[in-house]
Design goal:
- The structure is a single chain.
- This protein has helices at 4-7, 12-20, 26-44, 52-67, 110-117, 155-163, 179-185, 219-229, 273-288, 305-320, 322-328, 334-343, 348-371, 401-406, 410-415, 444-457, and strands at residues 47-50, 79-83, 121-126, 168-173, 188-191, 211-216, 259-263, 292-296, 374-378, 391-393, 398-400, 419-426, 432-439.
- The chain is α/β, with parallel strands linked by helices.
- The chain has one domain: Amidase signature (AS) enzymes.
- Strands 1-3-2-4-6-5-12-13-9-7-8 form an eleven-stranded mixed sheet, with helices on both faces. A two-stranded antiparallel sheet has the order 10-11.
- The longest helix is centred in the last third of the chain and has 24 residues, at 348-371.
- The model is unreliable at 1-5 (pLDDT under 50).
């Protein structure tokens, strides 16, 4: 029998088996997670709105349904956290900003609705950087080291998962905001293909770069969540009517013959030694499992990647906020004020040039993926930043935390490709390191299969912070 002390760290797949067999109940599981939140979240500060009463009520309904033989599937009775960008009916959805401190949506975002329909239990709303415009989620801290940030903008989701404060969570990813907190908190997160998951009811940062996706403690859990979240949505014209696979059924652990491309340029420039060593070891592991490691070179990848990203995200964000910023600009945080002011200065010619460069980057990644099944890179070149840290120091230059976090992640937003981050090591100071795998459009199944095979062969995803 699983003890209550252990329940908060169950994976979704583990909990689902116990719930279906009635070995544990949704109420027991939800209460265990709520107890864990009460125990540690005073230090981590992940939840901005905790819906304990509502969650227990939903758990009782789920328990009754399961007892009556109305089991909905592997998300039924699973306690989850919702990033505060996602509309939740009747619950304040502030997007981390004073601007929306009184915004109470009348209906759920499409993703939240789908998770509820699958039986998931909403525990509450977790932190985000204001309007997702940054790689942090203040005031949340990293459970591996409370002096470090959880990255962001989905830092509340990442920290909560690592600390056992939910079993699954939603995230959003415009330039890496699912994968960066995935890496630094030692959990798993996938940015699906652009158009795979609806963004309806999710606050906009950048129309052409935003992605919604799941975060969890294992690849198998991501597979379960993504199947429930994905699909065409008439309310989001960017979604495509493409069949959604049963991702969990493809997690065989077998990657024999899988062609894994390792870029020889860009993705290993200016990388902390611990990150390089962990990723090198991960490559060896995947090779030992039968993966075929192939060196690839990426054309049009260089110093213009980050400027291309910034030249799209900045003016798109400034356009979205234009009216509100003009009327209530002083209510935004200082960092977001500065970013939005800068975004207003971009010329149309700069934006158009960036879109042309984006096409070249997308074509380069497509050419590489014509030769291989997936691409493998570090998720980040660095481990978690310390609270208040502004730069990382390399041998001959400084790099802002924002740039360091976006550098390896934003290319896959620019190209709209599916990309996952999973844990692959710990640094000397015991901070998590992430491995990124990216695939072809709408081929999340292969990305998940490779990530799951790596997890089956290692135990990095099972490591927990000492709180």
């Amino acid at each position: 029998m699983t003890t209550q002390t252990e329940l908060h760290y169950l994976t979704i797949a583990e909990a689902a088996r116990l719930l279906e067999r009635k070995t544990i109940s949704p109420v027991e599981l939800t209460q265990a997670v709520l107890d864990r939140i009460e125990e540690v979240d005073g230090r981590l500060k992940t939840y901005v709105t905790l819906l304990a009463t509502e969650a227990l009520s939903a758990a009782r309904r789920a328990e009754q349904d399961i007892q009556c033989g109305k089991y909905l599937g592997p998300l039924h009775g699973i306690p989850m956290a919702i990033k505060d960008l996602y509309d939740t009916a009747g619950v304040v959805t502030a997007s981390g900003s004073k601007i929306r401190s009184d915004y109470v949506p009348k209906s759920d975002s499409t993703v939240v609705r789908k998770l509820r329909e699958a039986g998931a239990i909403v525990l509450g709303k977790v932190t985000t950087h204001e309007f997702a415009f940054g790689f942090d989620a203040p005031p949340t801290r990293n459970p591996w080291n409370l002096d470090c940030t959880p990255s962001g903008s989905s830092g509340g989701s990442g920290s909560a998962l690592a600390a056992g404060l939910c079993l699954g969570a939603t995230g959003s990813d415009t330039g890496g905001s699912i994968r960066a907190p995935g890496a630094v908190n030692g959990i798993a997160g996938i940015k699906p293909t652009y158009g795979r998951v609806s963004k309806y009811g999710v606050a906009v940062l950048s129309w052409s770069l935003d992605h919604a996706g799941p975060m969890a403690r294992s690849t198998a859990d991501l597979a379960l969540m993504l199947r429930a979240m994905a699909g065409h949505d008439p309310n989001d014209p960017t979604t495509l009517d493409i069949p959604v696979p049963n991702y969990a059924a493809t997690l065989s652990g077998d990657i024999k013959g899988l062609k894994i491309g390792v870029p020889q340029n860009y993705f290993f420039d200016d990388v902390q030694p611990a990150v390089k060593n962990a990723v090198t070891a991960a490559i060896a592991t995947l090779k030992s499992l039968g993966g075929k490691i192939i060196e690839v070179n990426l054309r049009h990848f260089g110093d213009d990647v980050l400027p291309t990203f910034f030249s799209i995200v900045m003016p798109e964000a400034a356009t979205y906020h234009q009216k509100t910023f003009r009327e209530r600009g002083h209510e935004y945080g200082a960092d977001v004020q500065e970013l939005l002011e800068t975004g207003q200065l971009f010329l149309a010619t700069t934006y158009i040039t960036a879109q042309r460069n984006r096409s070249a980057i997308k074509a380069s990644l497509a050419a590489a993926l014509d030769m291989v099944d997936i691409l493998l890179t570090p998720t980040l070149p660095v481990t978690a930043a310390r609270v208040g840290q502004e730069n990382y120091q390399w041998k001959d230059r400084q790099e802002s935390v924002f740039a360091a976090c976006a550098r390896f992640l934003c290319p896959f937003n620019l190209a709209g490709l599916p990309a996952i981050s999973i844990p692959c090591g710990l640094s000397e100071d015991q901070m998590p390191i992430g491995l990124q795998l990216a695939g072809k459009p709408f081929d999340e199944a292969t990305v998940l299969r490779a990530a799951d095979a790596f997890e089956k062969a290692t135990d990095w995803h099972q490591r927990r912070p000492k709180l």
